[in-house]
Amino acid sequence: MQPKVRVRFAPSPTGPLHIGGVRTAIYNYLYAKKFNGDFILRIEDTDQTRFVSGAEDYIIEAFKWLNITFDEGVGVGGIHAPYRQSERTMYRNFALELVEKGWAYYAFDTPQELDDLRKQNEALKRNFQYDSTTRQGLRNSLSLSKEAVEDLIAAGEPYVIRFCFPADTDVVFNDLVRGEVKFNTSLLDDKVLYKSDGLPTYHLANVVDDHLMEISHVIRGEEWLPSCPLHVMLYKAFGWSEDMPQFAHLPLLLKPEGSGKLSKRDGDRLGFPVFPLQWSDPKSGDVSSGYRESGYIPQAVVNMLALLGWNDGTEKEIYSMDELIEAFSIDRISKHGAKFDVAKAKWFNHQYFQKLADDQIAKDYLPILNSKGLNADLDYVTSVVSLVKERCDFLNDLWDNSYYFFKAPETYDEKVVAKRWKDDAGKQMAEILIHLRQMAETECGDDVLFAQNADTFLHNHITEQQLNMGQIMNCIRLALVGEGKGVNLADIMRLIGSGETIRRIEKAIEVLGR
RNA sequence: GCCCCGUUCGUCUAGUCUGGCCUAGGACGCAAGAUUUUCAUUCUUGAAAUCAGGGGUUCAAAUCCCCUACGGGGUACCA
Fold first, then answer.
1. Are A504 and A409 within 8 A, CB to CB?
2. pTM across the whole model
């Protein structure tokens, strides 16, 4: 029987989570949900020097926004708590167990000594590696006598515990994305498992926790592929090979232009967020934009990220979360890195924005209007939204496409004036105005009727007087909008009403003359 | 340097495992046309990959094998 699917997302709280990490989490989540498994959030904070306050809260808030929930972990608890590695104290014993079994050893070399060694070798164009060929010449429990080691430890000499790789052995493992991957131990160095500060390194903590938390599948970024043989060997050393998780190493997200993996700075430089939420660096105070603050819809972000490096083989592109869960499979994840494309991200958001209910959008639009010192009731705003939303990708595009429903133009686009408001435009408008005033009086406040009649009148009037349709209509548009854009004129007149329509035309005649 | 992973339109990708249906399909973006009194939307059409390059294997290769180039990752008492 297959073990229960249990996967984890294990970020390090060294700053805001970037979208590559978010995608990794999404794949983990989809996989867990597909098999009715568990999704765990574990915080890997074993490097105190890189800890950034606020990062953990940020991560939790980001997933909350994306509507990705954890079954266990920091913030939700669970039977394997604590889920913050800094609060887990069992690692030392596991490291010691490996020393006992001969799979690891104490090493007393200082960082300075090792650094010097690396530099020396580099100067000789050689690669220094702490391994079977060099360990005898270094200060460790393999080269030193038992007494010497005991004395050093008793004297409080700082030490680390290193994994002892067997010489020249092939480590082969199966990767769910890449197939069989093989590394030879002669190219691997004896990685530190336990640091002199009393905390484990990623490798030890990760393997121990994945085992203790009964993780069935490790789905993580490709940057971990080279250290995977160490992890495989650790499972072996602990005697856990039987229930070692399966590995899947995901391709990385690359910069949209040039080369290299997507990094923090790319976003604002290239005009798109790399973080789910806005982030203010607690030290520098630098602010990086977020998807949420940029007006993206969370489900659009999930959909877009899920499709960046995965597809189900069909031509479908818009998926609900349930559809993603249903369709997801690890073996259809692509093997190569993907460049992020802002235009496509906008397109995804456009698709989701169109699906939103008009009154829902209107509710979110209200505060934006208020911030511009404008007031309008929800019904009116809803009507406006229904007319203009299809031209918007984001909530924030609404204003540019609908400002004229809320305030009269203060200026008139010069290019449009030059093109449309010529000859006796003012005279013609004045004449039209007489009829519109009459209509407004007859209709006494029924703007729907007014707009209808005004529209019919304009068409007839233009035909009868043999006027230029484009010229006249656009002069009215110019008067109502201030520019040569906007929705259907009748719709504008209907919403702003007869009084406002007339006022705006009067104003245009007054300002533009002729 | 060394090790590992990768390479199909500008971008994301389908097709590769199980060679022939691929004169390589879709989407984004781009261009043109239609619709609209305008802008946008929408619709239609189009341009866009000699499948990184070179060698094999085969009746047949984007698909299998080898080499090269390029890209990415790793090479820390970081994750």
1. yes
2. 0.94
